[in-house]
Amino acid sequence: MNLTWNLDSLYTSFYSEGWKADRERLKHHIHALNEWADLSLNDRSQPSTLIEEFLKRYNGFKSVYACLSCYLELILSADSRNTEAMDMLDDIECEGADIVNVCVIFNKWLNSIDGLDEVIDRSPYLMEHRFYLNELLRQSKYVLSEEVEVVIARLQSTGSKAWQRLYMNSVSNVLVDVEVEGESRRLSLSELRNMAYDTNSTLRKAAYHGEWEAYRDIAEVSAACINGISGEALTIYGMRGYESPLAKVLASSRMDRETLEVMLSAIKESLPAFHTYYLKKAQRLGHTASLPFYDIFAPINEGIKVLTYAEARDCIVDSFRTFSDELADFAQKVFDNHWIDAEPRAGKGNYGMCVDIFPIQESRIMTTFTGSYTDVGVLAHEIGHAYHSSCLSGEKMINTDYPTPIAETASIFCETIINHELLKLAPTEDGISLLERSISDAGYYVVDFYGRYLFENQLYEKRQHGTLSVEELNELMLACMQEAYGQSIDPATIHPYMWINKVGYYMAGNEFLNFPYSFGLLFSKGLYAQYKKQGRDFVARYHSFLSATSKNNIVDAAQLMEIDVHSLQFWRDALALIAEEIEDFVNRA
């Protein structure tokens, strides 16, 4: 089977007529929108008409910009060495910055309109955008003057976004000599990371130390990148009036602090259960004490089945069909239409990713497929993201943005479906391995991400007082990982450079890409428990819930499924489901 994606429904190349036409369309949209704003946004006599006109023009701009930028993002994700795509992305982002002035002017103009709800009620088109408009008002207190916002947008292309690209290029292209089966091989970080799941313990350890060596070689560059990105975030968010980068993330995630604090409290309570799991895994793998970090993802059985890509496809589609024909048919379409790039190769990012291209109602998925059950779970996860976006089909561009924590719900829900079905379908001898893998994945989202959250929180606190050296970053990461993993992991083996292998720290403008995954895991566990009780009656409600996520905050979206995210008990109950799996594993292992 072909393991690479097809991007032709976007563009066939940078020289295609479609690409050239959209480049011109983008310039036209930017010029026309700026000209319209200068002429129209001094008038308050016809607010309904003017708001409609802005939204239609802005939706038009967003559609073209999304196609161009998504194409470039996909090209670079698959090949970080493509300098032509990198230069073009710089150009697109610089052009996109020219729209910032209009958005700021419109935001301030909108804030001056009295009785906005009554204005919206007079227009069916505006009623479709009510949530978006009210969000603009809510966020308006964080918007600076037009001149300052334009300067910020322009400087970011040579600031945080340039640091991000330098980091991506560094980690994608570093190569390390590692001994594999008696031969020295030069491997990429992506290949080394995949060895963490290998059945050969000697190879896992060699790959781990090879990765350690690779990160040491790019540590100074990575430290400059993380300092540059975090320093810019502190400066800009401080200027805008946010209490902290975390406060900004919560606001943009439509998530209140109470939800975060209640969830984190439940996670902290649950850590001893995970520690029990890691210690039992250490025992199963033959370690006399705690688990070495290089074995944290190790399979517990050597003979576990390896799947072909075709088998993985069929497994996913069949498993999804147990939930709904709609989900299964969607997954089949993803494979048939070559929306996935799953081929392992140098220069390709070592992460799973789904890019939703709303203007053409398609998505593209990037993974690295090696045949493990874990790879099947990653595919299911990313297809879940794509399915979520398909539930928003027909929405205008500015109504397709949903909170990151909710974004991780559909993906992890799909992972849960595949994990439960794999447990039924796998050979008996693989059953305990799959149970362990499910717990391992949960531990990654809960324990590891808790440590990463602690690190990022403290990074911003310390960054306020100056840049952090490689040694300081290492010490901070080690301390946070030890707090999360406790005595269950051998502290001498914890990776001090984990701040380099977590791409989320370098995603400019997307800070704290850690707790949303914990939210997604636990929220999806709660949803899956509802599904097991309600059966088919749940499916339609779930689809409606996903369709509504772009027009609700997290509290209200959760209430659509009768879930109170302020309830400590809800999070405890979700974590208790994982604790039951841990108890089962401990008894069987």
UniProtKB/TrEMBL annotation:
<feature type="domain" description="Oligopeptidase F N-terminal">
    <location>
        <begin position="116"/>
        <end position="172"/>
    </location>
</feature>
<feature type="domain" description="Peptidase M3A/M3B catalytic">
    <location>
        <begin position="195"/>
        <end position="574"/>
    </location>
</feature>
<protein>
    <submittedName>
        <fullName>Oligoendopeptidase F</fullName>
    </submittedName>
</protein>
<dbReference type="GO" id="GO:0004222">
    <property type="term" value="F:metalloendopeptidase activity"/>
</dbReference>
<keyword id="KW-0378">Hydrolase</keyword>
<dbReference type="GO" id="GO:0046872">
    <property type="term" value="F:metal ion binding"/>
</dbReference>
<dbReference type="InterPro" id="IPR034006">
    <property type="entry name" value="M3B_PepF_2"/>
</dbReference>
<dbReference type="InterPro" id="IPR013647">
    <property type="entry name" value="OligopepF_N_dom"/>
</dbReference>
<dbReference type="Pfam" id="PF01432">
    <property type="entry name" value="Peptidase_M3"/>
</dbReference>
<dbReference type="InterPro" id="IPR001333">
    <property type="entry name" value="Peptidase_M32_Taq"/>
</dbReference>
<keyword id="KW-0482">Metalloprotease</keyword>
<keyword id="KW-0645">Protease</keyword>
<dbReference type="Pfam" id="PF08439">
    <property type="entry name" value="Peptidase_M3_N"/>
</dbReference>
<dbReference type="InterPro" id="IPR042088">
    <property type="entry name" value="OligoPept_F_C"/>
</dbReference>
<keyword id="KW-0862">Zinc</keyword>
<keyword id="KW-0479">Metal-binding</keyword>
<dbReference type="InterPro" id="IPR001567">
    <property type="entry name" value="Pept_M3A_M3B_dom"/>
</dbReference>
<dbReference type="GO" id="GO:0004181">
    <property type="term" value="F:metallocarboxypeptidase activity"/>
</dbReference>
<dbReference type="GO" id="GO:0006508">
    <property type="term" value="P:proteolysis"/>
</dbReference>
<comment type="similarity">
    <text>Belongs to the peptidase M3 family.</text>
</comment>
